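Checklist before submission:
- one chain only
- standard amino acids only
- sequence pasted in full

Submission:
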Amino acid sequence: MGCGKHNDYNSGGNCVCEVVRAIKEIQEAAVSPTECAECTSCFNEPLGSLVSPTRRDPVDTRVFVLKNADGTPFHAFFSNEMNACVSIFFRVEEVFDNCCATLRVLVPGRREGGTFTPVNLVSSGDRCCVDLTRVCQVERFRASNDCVTVDLSCFCAVQCIADVDLGICSSR
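Returned file contents:
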């Protein structure tokens, strides 16, 4: 299986698609674990075991990043908030038609004085590119109202970042 190659979904399929499907199932299950996971991976179950297997805080989202064939993170726009309107962080909302997905764009942020402050990921000199050094400043996430529909077979990698509580489940 390689980037940009279309595979027979009945014989292995697309790994990015399978990981995003697994994340969706884990988010839906969101049950308290009885065992600790030994390593961190997108397939860790239950939700909440990705970052801290011993932490049992309620969580409803596995935050992840998708990577393009050249290794750059896929990005999407969300409603402008203090000039921070681009994100590389997502929550899966739905997977459909073999390998398509609706992803919620997550607002990247950090804690400053106990409040959420968005992190602008766009390079100041080049408005079209994500500044990867700014990605390291991200400590927190907030759900936006913006979603993007993607063909998961177009991506070469998926990296899970954190399990967090965005209050998504309580608003349904």
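Reviewer check: Confidence is low (pLDDT under 50) at residues 1-11, 31-37.
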